[in-house]
Amino acid sequence: MKNNIFFKPSIIYILTLLITSGCASRYAPPVTGPIAYITYALEEDVNSVEVINYKTSDCSGSSRIGILFNGEPDEKTIDVAIPANKPFISHFSYSWSYYGGMTACEITTSFIPEENQNYKSVFKTSYNSCSAQIFKITEVNNQTTLLSEPTFKKNPKKCHWW
């Protein structure tokens, strides 16, 4: 079964990109104005997670940040510059088909990044749910610390990327 082309991770990744390519434009990081930085990360054994940015909390103006892919280590994170000092909205979409069923989970979050600050957003799944959290990355005495971001919230409206 390992030699079956439909189970190769790279083929699944490429098919996911092709299928979703028309749904959102590619995210364009800001080039002027106040900027912050975020690393999106997978910390659990999930296949892939689509990360979308929306310009407003009512889910308008979508752009694809990328796909977190549980393959090579460099595919488990995405680093991007984001506009600071105003709400930044991220949407995570996860689905997995298996023999006898499918599981899916979506979550839309927002926070207000501070200028020149670094953040980490972590997506997690459990048996029947998913969650996301944003941490502010701080350096104290040459040690990196992750602090819960106080402006982080789960949006009441769940955006859909399709």
Topology:
Blueprint: H1 9-20, E1 25-26, E2 35-42, E3 48-54, E4 62-69, E5 77-83, E6 88-98, E7 101-111, E8 118-125, E9 130-140, E10 143-148, E11 153-154
Parallel strand pairs: 1-4, 2-8
Antiparallel strand pairs: 2-5, 3-4, 3-6, 6-7, 7-11, 8-9, 9-10
Q: Could you write a compact summary of the structure shown?
A:
The protein is mainly beta.
Could you describe the 3D structure shown?
The chain is mainly beta. The chain has one domain (24-154). Helix content is 7%, strand content 50%. The protein is built from one helix and eleven strands, in the order αβββββββββββ. The chain has one helix at 9-20, and strands at 25-26, 35-42, 48-54, 62-69, 77-83, 88-98, 101-111, 118-125, 130-140, 143-148, 153-154. Strands 1-4-3-6-7-11 form a six-stranded mixed β-sheet, with no helix packed on it. Strands 5-2-8-9-10 form a five-stranded mixed β-sheet, with no helix packed on it. The two termini are 32 Å apart. Mean pLDDT is 80; it is low at 1-22.
